[in-house]
Design a protein that fits this description.
Blueprint lengths: L13 H11 L31 E8 L4 H7 L3 H17 L4 E11 L4 H17 L3 E9 L9 E12 L14 E6 L8 H10 L7 E2 L2 E2 H5 L7 H4 L10 E4 L4 H6 L7 E6 L7 H10 L3 H7 L4 E7 L1 H13 L4 E9 L4 E4 L6
Parallel strand pairs: 2-3, 9-12
Antiparallel strand pairs: 1-4, 2-4, 5-10, 5-11, 6-7, 8-10, 9-11
Length: about 350
Amino acid sequence: MTKEFSYKSSGVNIDAADAAKREMADSMETNDTRILNRPGAFASLFEAKFPGVDNPVLVLKAEEPGSKQLLAFEQDKVEGVCFDLINHLINDIIVMGAKPEVVLDIILCGKIEKEIVLRIVRSIAEASRKQGCQLIGGETSEQPRVLPEGGYMLNASILGVVDKSKIIDGSRIQAGDVVLALASNGLHTNGYSLVRKLMEERPEMMTETIDGEPFMDVVLRPHKCYYQELEDLLGTSLIHGLAHITGGGIEGNLNRILPVQTAARIDLEHIRVPQIFKTLRRYGNVDDKDMLRTFNMGVGITLISSKNEADSIRRHLESKGCETYPIGEIVEGDQTVQYVNSLSWD
């Protein structure tokens, strides 16, 4: 007798997936008339109208929150990692001068757990709305032979827009400019493979209290988004360059926007190192070179401006609640980042 197979024998529950997707629609409601499709459509329709933008250039980026999401799901802090995902995406496009417009997400899982999936979608939608953009669609896929039950992998992509004449690409950077640090609120979304390894080998580290908060709360603090603080400066001539400091640290990201015949000289002594990095360094006996290459070390974005404008930019950002301070200068060179002095661990 030939065995009969069905979608249920494959481990995929189509009925559960359909039920979850129907409830996702509430999280994606919007009054933006440029969004022409309804949830459940085969693809998302977005009418390309951008008021106030004379020559629109689309800015596209995809991202995933790395191994931080493993910790987030283990600790049942799903909402935070969704904000990580969106805030990281938005930071990556605003450093080019773009305004975030719409987001698509991807949720892969070993088994669709309706409540978890709905928490994810609601949080991604909320994180998007907080920054003036909208989740308009995506994909939720049950993959029982790819991921274990309870296993999730998140991904998202974003579309932004910038007027062609107002793109920020570093081309206006010149020797004599100032490098400002926009402070991070902690690890953001980088270095978690090392953090998880340290937690495994030095579990006593997890009993630490940092800045008055439990260690795990600080480690899973969502990635800061800088859009609202920078919004009024985007589109002006004040900013010569912006770099989002992610994997590779300051050296591996600031160099990506330096024009030929320039270099950045960063005074490590000026960097205000948050306590979380001091704790990780102490427990892991990590040398400064590896710390700088793995983590942002308290610098979420570097902003380059002329020396004459640096103070007014700093005052503006701090009035918005964004700690900002000088850490270096642009000099003549070979598109590299040069460190001088040493990090302060006091």
